[in-house]
Amino acid sequence: MIGTKYIAVICNYVLKPERIGGMDRFFVAYDSACKERGLRVDWFFSHCKPHSFYENLNVFASENTSAIEQFFNQDITSKRYDIVITHFVELCTPMFRKIKTAHHSYIIAIDHNPRPIQGFPLKKRIKNRIKGRLYGRNIDCFGGVSQYTVDHILMDYGKQIAGKTHLVYNGIDTSIYKKRTEENFGRMIVASHLRESKGIQDLIEAVNLLSAQLKNMLKIDIFGEGPSEKVLKAKVADYNLEQQIVFNGSSSKLPELLQGYSFLLQPTYMECFSLSILESLAANVPVITTPVGGNPEIIINGYHGFLFKAGDIRELASILEKVLEKDLIIGKDVSTKIVREFSLEKMVQGHLKLLPCT
């Protein structure tokens, strides 16, 4: 049994009842596993209200500020935490020194943050190295959700933290995804935050390059919200693609919906380790995506789907064309690897191993 009793988990993550995703399920499963070990966990989330999915968690949610660090710091003197864990929070900032000073906590920082394809500009790289030296010593354990992430943590903040940097892959509850059993030919899905770095504008351009005959064979449902939504909808309208591309907003029913599609489309420029890809493959739905971030750690080109260079609209159009003409086919069950290597249980156990005195 772990000797420590109180854990604070700080998440720059918005709780939304209309979006119950892989991370929501991880948070709930992790909380349950901690309770089984006699640990009490307080959860701090940013600018949101807790909902019924989180009813068994002790949640502190800020409704008025987007800065989760500031929100947690308001509570920092009221309780003493033996362990502090961060998710989706910038690494190596003064916050970590403040927590260490106030609590003498064992601090675990989990990095979910993607990097630009070309890497950070020189000024930011220098700044990160300085931050790594100044504040990295206050973090006892760094966790990366893919090997790509681990490599970039060390590249960003310095090799001096290599001994306390660990790989813990993301995982999903594979049991809730109904597996595709029919071809569902021409029906494809996008499940993504709608921002420029996700490359959905490239998908629209690629669809516009297809012949009229192939367009008539294609139906793409987009699930998600974000700052680029109006721009993307306008582009679809400009190209008269309303019959091919439909925006559906966020949905908490993706585990049931995925089986209705033949491919997941993810033309992203930046990715850390995609839960959407795991979810799609768990439903036996192959993926068309880019080899950025941790994607190549999941996808074998031609086996689990097809990879194309980020930003290469013509290559994406070519893949769509060949899929619709049945020159490119994924005929095998693509869920096997996900069940074996990327389960929610394996993810939870990996994170528990990061705790001291396990």
Automatic annotation (TrEMBL):
<dbReference type="Pfam" id="PF13439">
    <property type="entry name" value="Glyco_transf_4"/>
</dbReference>
<protein>
    <submittedName>
        <fullName>Glycosyltransferase family 4 protein</fullName>
    </submittedName>
</protein>
<dbReference type="InterPro" id="IPR001296">
    <property type="entry name" value="Glyco_trans_1"/>
</dbReference>
<feature type="domain" description="Glycosyltransferase subfamily 4-like N-terminal">
    <location>
        <begin position="21"/>
        <end position="175"/>
    </location>
</feature>
<dbReference type="GO" id="GO:0016757">
    <property type="term" value="F:glycosyltransferase activity"/>
</dbReference>
<feature type="domain" description="Glycosyl transferase family 1">
    <location>
        <begin position="181"/>
        <end position="327"/>
    </location>
</feature>
<keyword id="KW-0808">Transferase</keyword>
<dbReference type="InterPro" id="IPR028098">
    <property type="entry name" value="Glyco_trans_4-like_N"/>
</dbReference>
<dbReference type="Pfam" id="PF00534">
    <property type="entry name" value="Glycos_transf_1"/>
</dbReference>
